[in-house]
Amino acid sequence: MSVQYGKVISLILQERFGPVVEKVGTYLFQYGTVPLLYIKKNTNLPLSKVKEALCILIKYRLVTFTPNRNANVANYTLQHDQVLLTLRYANYINLIKKKFGNECEMIVEELLQRSYWTASELILKVIERFKKDHNKAVTILSLREKFISLVNAQYLIRLPYSEEDKPVPNLILPETDQFVIPQFELKQMTLVQSGKAPVDSLPDRGVYWTVNFDRFHQDMRDKLIVNAFTKKFDENAGEFVRLLLQQMYIRTTPWAEVSNPVPVIEIRDNVRKQATHQHLLAFFDQYVSVLEQDNSQLIRQGGEAGGGSLQIFLKEAFVQFAWETVEQIVLEKFDSKAARIFRLVKSKQYIESDQIQQLAMIPAKEAKRLSYQLLEENFLQVQELKKSSSTGPNKSFTLFHIDINQVIRMTLELCYKTLYNIMTRKNHERLVHKRIIDKKQRVETIIMGMRVQGAGDEQLADIEEMITPPEKEILQKIDLTMKKLNSVELEIDETIFLLQMYLLYQ
Fold first, then answer.
1. Which of 93, 233, 504 is nearest to 242 (CA)?
2. Residue spans of the chain under pLDDT 50
3. Residues 176-192 pLDDT 10s
4. How far is CA 63 from CA 24, 28, 53, 352, 371, in A?
5. 41: which residues sit within 8 A by CB, 6+ positions away?
6. What pLDDT does 387 receive?
7. Of all helices (H) and strands (E), which one includes residue 478?
8. How many C-beta atoms surround the C-beta of residue 155 within 10 A?
9. Helix (H) or strand (E) holding 419
10. How far apart are CA 51 and CA 182, in angstroms?
């Protein structure tokens, strides 16, 4: 793993869990799978602290364990990809809120905060939060239906469990049990809610649920594809592709490189049922024809005979998205002339320096400078070939080409470096303005407490005046800076996700 990636992982662990967990996590990142005593010896932490850190990391599914040769000893492995996913928690919550509403949003939020929980306890906790935060009454029955809808849509999944009593258990989760709806006892849950029965009396005790990140990533992948077609054509084309992907899941595994043929008539029926895109329905055949004839060739006629069905080529889609992303980075990092040279090398696959100068329509000196600048930054590579029949000074010639896999991995490194810099800058802003931020939080806490006690507007205004106008101006600047940094962080994560999708399909 790369140094930049390791820095990001360490910083995330530091922010979320503190220095002890960060030290254990960083050691596991550097040395891979190791037993407990190795971690203690090399981190110089007390055994109790190492155990506590591992318990936290295992609870949040950031560390997994397997039996050593000695079945009584466990080897621990950091799941670094899972650590990076913590940056996407806000995206996951927002996705569920748009798709299922506030109740489901709170269910997923609670699960992300605690990592896992039983269904009954989770529902009771969400009811308590609604009463406290929103002064809104939510019934157990309605929340149970929301929970079941999330399980049926596979956004929630059962946590693996052990069937054997061993010092180092093997955690298993049969596919048939992953999304089995838990047993609910509404009467017993009501008794627990009112304090007339203990939590241990709930029937689903020991059956834990967690968030299924894979399902969220399917939605994020589909959103990228739909947005690409929407930008290239229009909203109706994007809706057509969304429905095609939706029907794909019926007959194709979610992460297949190419979908099985989807009958066009099914998509037309869905458009008619939704009745939200009348323009698409009116010109349906024309949209089918345009998407089939598009030079990207991401959607083609399906089956041996073709006609009447469509296939979407997901692998090729992300190959094109990756190329477009890299081209945009070259354009922004250098200039339009460098981007022109990059596209020329891409189209020719292998090309000599003299040909670049001729075909790019750029002055020879400038074309040479930009070509070698791209080479220095690893966006271009060179391959030297020898002339077998030549004995003179020009015994060989050099060809420029692009190794897209190498460029993608290098671009990911740039993303990790940028992400680390953004997170470091955010921490710096918090540290520099810690006093005034703490003061604002204290004032807000006092105001909240006084509102509960029924204080008047004049009393609340007096408390708000504890923050002076110059301090308010500083707080506004801090807030603006943090919003910009958060926005950039989300955009960088979107780029990382796209590039990871490309690598996944290779």
1. 233
2. 305
3. 888 988 888 888 888 88
4. 10, 9, 10, 49, 44
5. none
6. 66
7. helix 469-504
8. 25
9. helix 404-432
10. 32
User: What CA–CA distance (Å, rounded) separates 50 from 48?
Assistant: 6
Tokens of 429: 């802003």
The two structure tokens encoding residue 125: 């906790």
Give 54-63 pLDDT, tens digit per residue. Answer: 999 999 999 9
Instruction: Please check whether residue 11 is in contact with residue 423, taking contact to mean a CB–CB distance below 8 angstroms.
Output: yes
Residue 255, number of CB atoms within 10 A of its CB: 13
Contacts of 7 (CB under 8 A, 6+ apart): 416, 420
Contact 155, 217 (CB under 8 A): no
> What is the spatial distance between Cα 19 and Cα 112, in angstroms, rounded to a whole number?
21
To 5 degrees, how large is the angle CA 372–CA 320–CA 233?
A: 125
For residue 287 the two structure tokens come to 């949209």
Distance CA 358, CA 368 (A): 11
User: What is the Cα–Cα distance from 156 to 178, expressed in whole angstroms?
Assistant: 9
CA distance 361 to 355: 10
pLDDT of res. 305:
47
Instruction: Give me 438's structure tokens.
Output: 């703490």
What are the tokens at 302? 């399906």
CA distance 189 to 186: 5
Q: Are 215 and 155 in contact (CB under 8 A)?
A: yes
Q: Mutual orientation of helices 469-504 and 89-100 as an angle, nearest 10°?
A: 90
What is the pLDDT at residue 308?
Answer: 81
Inter-residue contact 404 to 321 (CB < 8 Å): no
Residue 174 corresponds to which amino acid?
Answer: P
